[in-house]
Amino acid sequence: MVVRPHHGLPTWVFVPAAAGALFVILPLAAMLTRVQWSRFFSLITSDSSTAALMLSLRTSSASTLLCVIFGVPMAMILARTSFRGQHLLRSLVLLPLVLPPVVGGIALLYTFGRKGLLGESLDILGIQIAFSTTAVVLAQTFVALPFLVVSLEGALQTAGQRYEAVAATLGARPSTVFRRVTIPLVLPGLASGAVLSFARSLGEFGATITFAGSLEGVTRTLPLEIYLQRETDPDAAVALSLVLVVVAVVVVGLARGGRGAAA
Fold first, then answer.
1. pTM for this structure?
2. ∠ at Cα 97 (93, 184), nearest 5°?
3. Helix 222-232 and helix 234-262: axis angle, to 10°?
């Protein structure tokens, strides 16, 4: 592949750019060299691997749905309103982006665990969330929600409010404007944010193992299965890692496609 320098772009920038690309690509290539292709399908279709993959897909889909339900109103408020403390609220909403996931897991455990802030009351009612499939969904939602909020808020700010203002002057109710104008206008950004949230949920590890544990078929998602297989069957760990890489490539491609459509 020959890259022609863009007008005004210094030639030297291609050197660190190429080094950065190699830094990302070489480890993936190295992993490919360790895949036991003769055993690949048997490794990724074992009972434990299949159970982990199916659980990951189910919980990631559920957490993505929760991200949409909670994230769309949050992004709307952050993008379309102005109030005291808004910058602080935005910082808190986006905090899981920079927090180590295990910290998020500890926070969830002290909120929904049996002795947690809400968990103690829920336990009296016979509802136990920690170390259950529900805990997996909540852990994934906690770390993935900011991705949807960031994507959608950016799309809302880029789109502006002129079409919504026109619809309002024509007598449309706020709910009608939201449903018929705002959502269709930012749909590519919403789709991109949802795809990124799904990807983040699918790869979640730290908060999940801290808050939900690792029980096969119940809370052991694919990243946890890979971690455990790394000690007992490295070939299986590499094969399952490749599955996650392929899914990630597809997800990033879909997200980029959504952003391209938005542009």
1. 0.89
2. 65
3. 150
Residue 240 to residues 100, 174, 189, 221: CA-CA distances in angstroms?
Answer: 24, 47, 30, 11
Q: Which CATH superfamily is domain 43-262 in?
A: MetI-like (1.10.3720.10)
Domain boundary assignment for the chain? 43-262
Dihedral (C-alpha) 258, 261, 262, 263: value to the nearest 10 degrees?
A: 130
Number of H helices and E strands in the chain, helices first, is 14, 0
3-class secondary structure, 126: coil
Span between the terminal Cα atoms of the chain, in Å: 26
What is the per-residue pLDDT for 168? 85
Contact 182, 165 (CB under 8 A): no
Which pair of structure tokens corresponds to residue 62?
């559920």
pLDDT of residue 74: 95
Q: Write out pLDDT tens, residues 72-104.
A: 999 999 998 888 999 999 999 999 999 999 999
